[in-house]
């Protein structure tokens, strides 16, 4: 992502990597696409971007900032196309930068001649962590790819920039029904606890874009119900890459109302209490997930797809023996005990529908080999993902089981109003 001048040059003194010799002038410094600060001991330094330079003695100089993408790159995972040897690795690193310097004839560089100039081309990319699950795989890391070249015509110096391209998501979908359940996306809460949802994305705000690992604040609540004695509970919440909640791949967010344990960025349940300012706080459920994208199981590459969130919801009426609150630590043990005891609790589960999230555009699987024949592009990938708020009216009848102290219980069928 190309940064503004101010953002690009906001580098701490400890992280600054010197660009040029100590006596370099401002004009020469900026001509090399570097930042200049007369008051700093390192007055010419590389900015928070990707800088490519071609030296007169036939060397590539590529300086990569970890802040060139969002979320930041893992500099340890960045390598060249032919970077198998130690000579093709970084010649210097700091907490925020990695510098590569190698001859234009080494590390997998390709040469071609055009219009009286010799062009040298190479490719740099990064690896990323893939998190497997039982029904799909995801990643929250930036996938990074940079195609760069040096064109030698006399003594010309040609710097390149890294750019991230985004894609627009499809619009949200709604479905009517007798029981009205709304699923919304909220903006970042004002309180540190995250309980206060002050603002929601409206229809005019869509599409909403989210960067990988950005928090996505979700709220599910019942509409047009005034019974203070009922509690909205969430069963499973999961994500798919298509609007169908049954499609594959899938990634679990909540399981039986509790965060999915095999996610390294577990979903955060946000309590909704009296301090929330809501008239019926028990009609609401809130949680936060970290934005991600699905990964193709065969190629292990991020998919150029949207992400849809689905939740199953139920209405519960608290009793002396059931507070309608999941016990996440011992939920497995409690579920086994309930099965053995032959519990007669009857719950109807209704899907709250789909929320559309969109990831930023990724290179196609065949893009790498086409880079050598197409007009050079720079693919610094900072994967943007999109979160969408939608009002979903679900057509369903919701059965509520009322537990009593008597040995025999009678289930009541509750229809959504």
From TrEMBL:
Superkingdom to which the source organism belongs: Eukaryota
Gene Ontology MF terms in the entry: acrosin binding; structural constituent of egg coat
Main location per the UniProt record: membrane
Record-level GO cellular component terms: egg coat; plasma membrane
Protein location: Cell membrane; Zona pellucida
Keywords: Cell membrane, Cleavage on pair of basic residues, Disulfide bond, Extracellular matrix, Fertilization, Glycoprotein, Membrane, Secreted, Transmembrane, Transmembrane helix
Cysteine-cysteine disulfides: 9-35, 19-34
Gene3D superfamilies: Spasmolytic Protein, domain 1, Zona pellucida, ZP-C domain, Zona pellucida, ZP-N domain
Membrane topology qualifier: Single-pass type I membrane protein
Residues passing through the membrane, by range: 378-403
Role according to the record: Component of the zona pellucida, an extracellular matrix surrounding oocytes which mediates sperm binding, induction of the acrosome reaction and prevents post-fertilization polyspermy. The zona pellucida is composed of 3 to 4 glycoproteins, ZP1, ZP2, ZP3, and ZP4. ZP4 may act as a sperm receptor.
Name of this chain's protein: Zona pellucida sperm-binding protein 4
């Amino acid at each position: 992502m190309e940064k503004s001048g101010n953002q690009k040059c906001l580098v701490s003194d400890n992280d600054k990597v010197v660009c040029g010799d100590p006596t370099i002038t401002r004009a020469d410094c900026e001509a090399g696409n570097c930042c200049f600060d007369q008051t700093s001991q390192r007055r010419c330094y590389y900015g928070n971007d990707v800088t490519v330079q071609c030296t007169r003695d036939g060397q590539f100089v590529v300086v990569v900032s970890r802040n060139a993408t969002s979320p930041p790159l893992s500099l340890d995972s960045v390598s060249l196309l032919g970077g198998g040897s130690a000579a093709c690795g970084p010649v210097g690193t700091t907490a925020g930068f990695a510098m590569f310097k190698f001859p234009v004839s080494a590390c997998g560089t390709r040469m071609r001649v055009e219009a009286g100039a010799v062009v040298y081309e190479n490719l740099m990319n990064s690896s990323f962590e893939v998190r497997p699950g039982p029904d799909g795989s995801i990643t929250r890391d930036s996938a990074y790819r940079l195609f760069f070249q040096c064109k030698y015509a006399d003594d010309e110096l040609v710097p390149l920039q890294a750019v991230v391209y985004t894609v627009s998501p499809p619009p949200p979908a709604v479905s009517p029904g007798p029981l009205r359940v709304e699923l919304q996306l909220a903006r970042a809460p004002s309180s540190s606890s995250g309980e206060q949802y002050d603002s929601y994305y409206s229809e005019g705000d869509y599409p909403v874009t989210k960067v990988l690992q950005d928090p996505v604040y979700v709220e599910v609540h019942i509409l047009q119900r005034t019974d203070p004695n009922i509690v909205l509970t969430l069963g499973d919440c999961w994500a798919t890459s298509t609007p169908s909640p049954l499609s594959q791949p899938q990634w679990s967010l909540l399981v039986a109302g509790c965060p999915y344990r095999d996610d390294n960025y577990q979903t955060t349940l946000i309590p909704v209490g009296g301090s929330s300012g809501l008239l019926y706080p028990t009609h609401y459920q809130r949680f936060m997930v970290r934005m991600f994208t699905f990964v193709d199981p065969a190629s292990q590459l991020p998919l150029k797809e949207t992400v849809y969130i689905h939740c199953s919801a139920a209405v519960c009426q608290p009793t002396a023996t059931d507070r309608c609150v999941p016990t996440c630590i011992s939920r497995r043990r409690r579920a086994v005990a309930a099965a053995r005891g032959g519990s007669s609790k009857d719950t109807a589960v209704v899907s709250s529908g789909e929320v559309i999230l969109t990831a930023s555009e990724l290179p196609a699987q065949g893009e790498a080999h086409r880079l050598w024949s197409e007009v050079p592009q720079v693919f610094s990938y900072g994967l943007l993902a999109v979160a969408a708020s939608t009002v979903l009216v679900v057509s369903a009848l919701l059965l509520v089981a009322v537990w009593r102290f008597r040995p025999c219980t009678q289930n009541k069928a509750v229809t959504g109003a």
